[in-house]
Batch of 2 targets.
Target 1
Amino acid sequence: MNAMDSIENGLPFLKMHGLGNDFVIIDARTAENPVTAEMAQAIGHRYFGVGFDQLAVLSTSDAADVDVAFWNSDGSTAGACGNASRCIGRLLISETGKESVTLRTERGILPVRDIDGDLLSVNMGQPQLDWRDVPLARDVDLNALPIEGAPGAAGMGNPHCVFVVDDVMAVDLPKLGPIFEHHDLFPERTNVEFIQVLDRESIRMRVWERGGMITLACGSGACAAAVVAHRKGLTERKVTIQLDGGPLEIDWRDDGVWMTGTTQLVFSGVLSPAFLDTVK
């Protein structure tokens, strides 16, 4: 048996990233969606699988160019993923020749626009700023949660807890991230962002994503950080956020929070039948 025999009838996928925030993308528009929580965990393992920050599964849509479901590497689902949405937008724009496309996610229908052939923008919608929508466990001040450090909270299709600190590089992210991810104020757990305001148009950010990991970038987290920083009176509505993987431009407009940045297709591959058999 040669290598090609071993992947015949396997499951094709793409590996992409936005600023080092990396994704496996499976196109199920012409086939039944094969992904389960167990499969997402197996594919997401960085030693025994492919590895990803999120898995995105595409399916046909009657309301947008494509329907998208997101999975975390621990097998849980995610309602939104900004950088993955931009990556998927890049694929669809290249496929269709359009200047803009729409994705239907749990967050709603998100438009993605080609800016200059390199940069893409996605409208992540208006932030969720009612405690029930974030969601939180009870009614509290979203600009100063009753948690040490008085972080702010915002929903972007998933919950975010944003701390303003003097030096993000001094934060013990592996220690503090999981503590706040599982804080009892967040019944569905939360993404945790630490931001350092450089000036009224610039922020430095590091992030711990719900699902138990440090990532180089988080698009929905950058959107939430910009919203929280502005609501605290620290920045303008349009800011550049410098993440470990590079910069995102966030612009909180009347029609939603727009996020602009680069994307990269890394490689295509096929999950072998033997691998898939281990998670059936």
Target 2
Amino acid sequence: MKGTVFHGPHDVRVERVDDPALQTPTDALVRITRAGICGSDLHFYHGAFPIEPGFVLGHEGVGVIEEVGSGVDRLKKGDRVVVSGLVACGRCFFCRRGQPSQCSESGSAVFGYGASSAGKLGWLGGEQSEAVRVPMADYTCYPLPAAIDDDAAVFLADILPTAYFGAINGNIRPGDTVAIFGCGPVGLCAVMSAKLFGPAEVIAVDSIPYRLELARKLGATPMSLENAQQAILDRTEGRGADVTIEAVGNEGALTAAIMAARGGGTVSVIGVFAAPSFNFPIGYAFARDLKFSIGLANINAHIPELSRLIASGTLDPRPLISHIMPLDDAAKGYEIFNARKDNVMKVLLKP
């Protein structure tokens, strides 16, 4: 089969790779019909994560079940499914408490991150490919209703549940002011997610005009990063935002989110940081009585609810899609996404 193979910084190639095969009774094989390029994939593209070349990228995929192991109960050949970017068992201490990101059976394995993230599961192929082996398939795959097409379903694999997780951790209340720092695909999903909780205003902060315009179309108040601090104070009688969400994985954006939160407010962090540490203004946060939440999203736990919201028309992430490209053009997709060409937002690949 074909897969998008990492060879080094700024070097990804679509090549022939080994076909996946069942390895355990709880595995399923999924033929991919749509895959996404995620912002966190760019960490590999930049060489920020120390991963050996040769693995297939991608943790956002939708497809059709081709084969299931003898231990798979919920799925059958021919089912359309979204494959969660995060492998989880659904039965352990953490999964039963809605924390599949801490699954003790999978070791919090993520597709497309190479063998180092797969823990007990060994090598996990990525989903920017023609097919993928899915361990623990009953909980890692979610059957899709006909009302959700492939383009919308891709968002369920990672970025929409991640954004929703950030909104939940922000403890948004009706009438709140919410400020979201970063208007890439995750940040704009956070705009949509935050609005589900009844805030008075959602403010979207970024430095790229076309992203801010899309945020405005989604119902947010757009603000440039350089003016956001004072503008947020002006709109909140000098208090600051009740909730801020950092959706970039950037120290500057995180600092801005902390400084923009009101006293007693909440800072929710969902951006993926490549750096192992950052400068945290702990004295300021202490004095301001800030609540701080950060973590890998519990994707699998949120897919069912978000699936219902998409199927009902309450959520529609498809306006974020800017490019749908053949899998063979994956390298071009990475180049466009990385360079922010052609007003790029979300790039989908179609095998």
